[in-house]
Amino acid sequence: MTTLVLVAVLTTTIAFLLTAGETALQRVSLRRAEQLVEEGRTGARALERIAGDAAPYLAVAAFVRVAAEAATAVLVTVAVDIRTDSHLQTALIAVGIMVVVTFVVVGVSPRTLGRQHTEPVALVAAPVVRLLRLFLGPVAKLLVLFGNAVTPGRGYAEGPFATETELRELVDLAGESSVIEDDEREMIHSIFELGDTVAREVMVPRPDLVTIKAEKVLRQAMSLLLRSGFSRVPVVGEDTDDVLGMLYFKDVARAVNSRPGTAGVVPVTDVMRPVQRIPEMKRVDELLKEMQRGRQHVAVVIDEYGGTAGLITIEDIVEEIVGEITDEYDRDSVDVEEVVLDDGTVRTRVPANLPVDDLAQMFDVEIETEDVDSVGGLLSTAIGMVPIQGAVGEVAGLELAAERMAGRRRRVATVLVRRVPEPEPEAPLEDPRAEEAGPDQERAGPQDGQAAVPAADTLVPRGERSTHHEDEVSTSAR
Q: How many whole angstroms separate alpha carbon 14 and alpha carbon 24?
């Protein structure tokens, strides 16, 4: 019996040490392990290797710890059974002993020790755990695979011993303890979620893209960039699926300023840059690294059919971590108000996100639309493209004009609305000689069966009519 008790104490000590080592190893970051290596601490090399890929090492440690606990339970049960005559007494006494040992000696005490003395315990445990993995790694790996096979759902290749959930819980605990601020906690959670986010969830969708045709010239491109507020615009060929490159505002400004005389003839394709194309299911954390290495700030997102799904920038990815980015020109909220323009006309300023039903109720009109919910979407549908500042459209007798762009994505923020004025009926032209004509002249009109012949001075020569039309066309073209 004495031998059984001594072996039980030994296995309990092993479980105690492994539990403390697991707790400490989970709390040491790779960066800290590298610093310990630079300091020349004993065991730092092994700790650095474990911190770089902790899951397989923790799996082996958990396997040995569980084996030690099981051995302790069996040894205690056999030792108690030797001293008792009833199996029921043996079971009750063994269970009582193991509950205390497992909870206090293997559970609470070593974990507390691992948290209080993280680095010393980790430095001592790292070489031992690394050696255990060298001999018992294949066995633990086989048992992990077996556990995944009998577990519903998708398992973990190295076992569920160092999960993201545990780190999230630590972050929440730090936030509740006021160790970190709420905004810092949210930012850390956003970083975790970044690895599960794909480009399709972050990109500017295709309907919101502002593009420019390849045949446009630099002067037209400059006008579009200034009105839209974008610094980069895709250059397209036949349609949005045919993205030829990316046009940068600084390139256009440089070309226009250096050669002002050619701004009206040089096509935008001469100054556009190549653009990166990525699949819509690409993870944004990987994309961010690629953009940093390639010094690319924007990429075109391609769907499964090879068409353009949208556009993604580095700023879109950063916003997933820090939240919405605004500038000094963005106002927090916009109220519905009456404004008087410079020409003296009165318009109603409404936010672009105002529901269409509210706009219809405001002007007592019926607006039939099922595809859009906001005034900004209504304007986009009316003009058939993404609205920019100054875009005007008519819907249900209302004139909508995009007034102001806001936000980093330069979307319409406010819209000016007014009723479309009804055209005034044109007054009939009167011949001033008709007033001077007497009754006899009025009766001197054409007789029945005769065609009326206009006076010679009221006829417009054919040449003058042609000249007026040509002037009108040339003015429109300008």
A: 15
Compute the chain's Rg from CA coordinates. 39
The single-letter code of the amino acid at 140 is A
Q: How far apart are CA 200 and CA 203, in angstroms?
A: 6
pLDDT at residue 303 is higher than 80: yes
Residues 6+ apart with CB under 8 A from 234: 209, 211, 212, 240, 243, 245, 246, 247, 275, 300, 311
Under the banding of pLDDT at 50, 70 and 90, the label for residue 141 is confident
Residue 402 token pair: 């995009």
pLDDT of residue 156: 56
Please choose, from the candidates 215, 237, 235, 212, the residue with its C-alpha nearest in 3D space to the C-alpha of residue 223.
212
Considering the chain, what percentage of its residues have pLDDT values greater than 70?
Answer: 75
CB 281 within 8 A of CB 199: yes
Instruction: Compute how many other C-beta atoms are within 10 angstroms of the C-beta atom of residue 429.
Output: 6
For residue 99, how many other CB atoms are within 10 A of its CB? Answer: 10
Which among 316, 283, 321 is positioned nearest to 204, based on CA atoms? 316
